[in-house]
C-alpha cells in the first residue's frame, strides 16, 4: 500500500511487534490473542461493538457531537461513503498495536488514544448532564463492549479448520476477561472498576441498565441524515473500498444474532424476532468458513486494519503457533 494509505492507521513511527523477549501486555498463549487473532474477528469487531454501544445515552452524545460522520452530516456538507470506511478502519486498526505490539508500542498508542479522546466533552442533549469520552464511565463502557464484541464474534463466527465456532469454556472466558483488564487500564479505566470474570461483566451491565435510552435528535442526526448523505455520495468506483462495509451490512441480521438477548432489547429489537435472527445465523454460518482461506482472510484484514496491523497479526500468529 502507498504511504498515504498507511497514514489512515499509523500514529507515529511504525509499531514494534511483540517478541519472546517482550511479549507485550498479552502475548502468545493468552486468551486475548487467541480471540483477537482469529481472522473472522477483524471485519466484524467494529459493527458488533457499535451494536453494543449505540443504545447508551452517553455514547450517543459523544457520537453526535464528535463523530466525523455525524458532525459532517449535521453541517449538510457532502459526504462520501469512503468516510464511513475510514471511520471503521481507524476504529479497528489503530488500537491493534496495543494488543499485538511490544510494551513501548502499546504504551505509546494508548497514550495517543487517551489524548485524542480527552477533548471530547459536552452535555447530553435534553439534559444538564455532562459527558466526557475520556471519563471513567465511558472508558470503562468502551473497554467492556469492545472486548465483549471480540468474544461474541469469535464464539459465533470463528471456524478452526473443520471445527465449528464454539463458546469458550467458563475457565477460558474468565481468563479472557482477566487478561483483557490490562487493555482497559491502558485506555484509562479505573483498575478497581474493571470486571475480570463473566459474572462481574454481567453485574456491570446490570448496574448501567439505567444508562440506556434515546437522546434528543438521535434518529435524524445519528442515523437518518448520515445514511442519506453517504448514499448521495456513492459512486460505483468506490465499491472495492466499500467491500468490508458492505460485508458487514449484508450480515447485519447475523451480527445482531450474536448479541445476548438484553443487548437486543436495548437496541429495540422485539422478542418475536429472536428466532428469525438465530435462524439466519445458523443458515449462513457455514459461509464463514471463507475466513479459513488464507488469501481471502489476509486481503480483508489488509483492507480493514491496514498493513501495520496485518504484519503484527502475522507475526503474532507465528508466536502463538510456537506455544500451541
UniProtKB/TrEMBL annotation:
Residues 1-23 are annotated as: Disordered. GO terms for molecular function: oxidoreductase activity. InterPro entries: MPAB/Lcp_cat_dom. Residues 33-289 form the ER-bound oxygenase mpaB/mpaB'/Rubber oxygenase catalytic domain. Pfam families: MPAB_Lcp_cat. It comes from the Bacteria. This is DUF2236 domain-containing protein.
Amino acid at each position: 500500500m502507498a504511504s498515504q494509505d498507511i497514514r489512515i492507521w499509523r500514529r507515529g513511527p511504525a509499531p514494534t511487534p511483540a517478541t519472546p523477549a517482550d511479549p507485550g501486555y498479552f502475548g502468545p498463549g493468552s486468551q486475548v490473542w487467541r480471540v483477537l487473532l482469529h481472522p473472522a474477528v477483524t471485519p466484524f469487531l467494529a459493527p458488533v461493538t457499535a451494536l453494543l454501544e449505540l443504545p447508551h445515552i452517553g455514547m450517543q452524545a459523544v457520537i453526535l457531537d464528535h463523530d466525523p460522520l455525524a458532525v459532517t452530516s449535521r453541517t449538510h456538507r457532502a459526504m462520501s461513503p469512503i468516510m464511513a470506511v475510514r471511520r471503521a478502519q481507524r476504529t479497528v486498526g489503530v488500537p491493534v498495536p496495543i494488543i499485538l505490539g511490544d510494551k513501548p508500542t502499546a504504551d505509546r498508542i494508548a497514550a495517543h488514544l487517551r489524548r485524542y479522546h480527552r477533548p471530547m466533552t459536552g452535555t447530553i442533549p435534553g439534559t444538564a448532564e455532562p459527558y466526557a469520552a475520556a471519563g471513567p464511565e465511558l472508558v470503562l463502557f468502551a473497554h467492556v463492549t469492545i472486548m465483549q464484541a471480540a468474544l461474541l464474534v469469535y464464539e459465533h463466527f470463528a471456524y478452526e479448520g473443520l471445527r465449528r465456532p464454539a463458546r469458550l469454556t467458563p475457565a477460558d472466558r474468565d481468563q479472557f476477561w482477566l487478561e483483557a483488564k490490562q487493555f482497559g487500564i491502558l485506555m484509562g479505566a479505573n483498575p478497581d472498576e474493571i470486571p475480570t470474570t463473566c459474572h462481574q461483566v454481567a453485574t456491570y451491565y446490570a448496574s448501567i441498565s439505567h444508562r440506556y435510552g434515546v437522546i434528543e435528535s438521535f434518529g435524524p442526526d445519528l442515523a437518518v441524515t448520515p445514511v442519506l448523505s453517504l448514499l448521495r455520495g456513492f459512486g460505483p468506483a468506490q465499491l472495492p473500498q466499500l467491500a468490508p462495509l458492505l460485508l458487514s451490512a449484508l450480515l447485519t441480521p447475523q451480527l445482531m444474532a450474536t448479541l445476548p438477548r438484553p443487548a437486543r432489547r436495548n437496541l429495540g429489537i422485539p422478542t418475536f424476532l429472536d428466532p428469525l435472527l438465530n435462524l439466519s445465523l445458523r443458515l449462513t454460518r457455514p459461509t464463514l468458513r471463507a475466513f479459513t482461506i488464507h488469501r481471502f482472510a489476509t486481503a480483508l484484514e489488509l483492507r480493514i486494519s491496514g498493513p501495520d496491523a496485518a504484519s503484527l497479526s502475522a507475526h503474532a500468529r507465528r508466536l502463538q503457533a510456537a506455544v500451541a
